[in-house]
């Protein structure tokens, strides 16, 4: 049964975040908390095109079997021509909490995200916008991947999708590409950010001098500073040639990943949650 339109019952509202095409609000109804995503209508987009785009995102999310590292779909409805996309409320911001994490916790969070991406690919879905801002935490500190606005069924990516600095080189140069492999590249950049580092390049394009240097050397020293101990994880993900890049199933089987003791429901090992 659909949730009632928020104005039909007592609630409090607080904006949780905003992207270029969406705002997310917290709605409190009695003891229940929900995140409601309001997706903005694009310039020159007809009402039908707008609703079709929103429904496509919702349909993909709703079709996914539940997984403890993916945000739960709750409901979707249209009231007075406005779509409301309801999800579980996730209170923790990973981009804030990572600043106080030790290496074990950073690896734990990375493994949770990797398992989320692997699960999506097992469901034949490419996320195409992996970044810290699209990771949130439950009150217990379990990482959940959010935002399926750029996601597609299958791995045949067409056109540029994703956020600046996170996108694989083939996405920026090719008409079509393997979006499973481009997600692996983005995951590699997220790994660096979880460690509090950044790539030396701003974008994975040939006219970026730092990226050009890395593309020739494929050296961990040209990715970021002080990463030698993680090169066996980083370099396979940031392989320039997507045909040679590690797959998600191969990544999950790396000994360095397998031995990471990660948090999951019923087995909370690290305290990841920090109030924003």
From TrEMBL:
Coiled coil: none annotated. This is non-specific serine/threonine protein kinase. ATP binds at residue 38. The keyword Coiled coil does not apply. Pfam families: Pkinase. InterPro entries: Atg1-like, Kinase-like_dom_sf, Prot_kinase_dom, Protein_kinase_ATP_BS. GO terms for biological process: autophagosome assembly; autophagy of mitochondrion; filamentous growth; piecemeal microautophagy of the nucleus; regulation of autophagy; response to starvation; reticulophagy. It comes from Ogataea haglerorum. Keywords: ATP-binding, Kinase, Nucleotide-binding, Transferase. Its EC number is 2.7.11.1. Residues 10-257 form the Protein kinase domain. GO terms for cellular component: autophagosome; cytosol; phagophore assembly site membrane. It comes from the Eukaryota. The keyword Thylakoid does not apply. GO terms for molecular function: ATP binding; protein serine/threonine kinase activity.
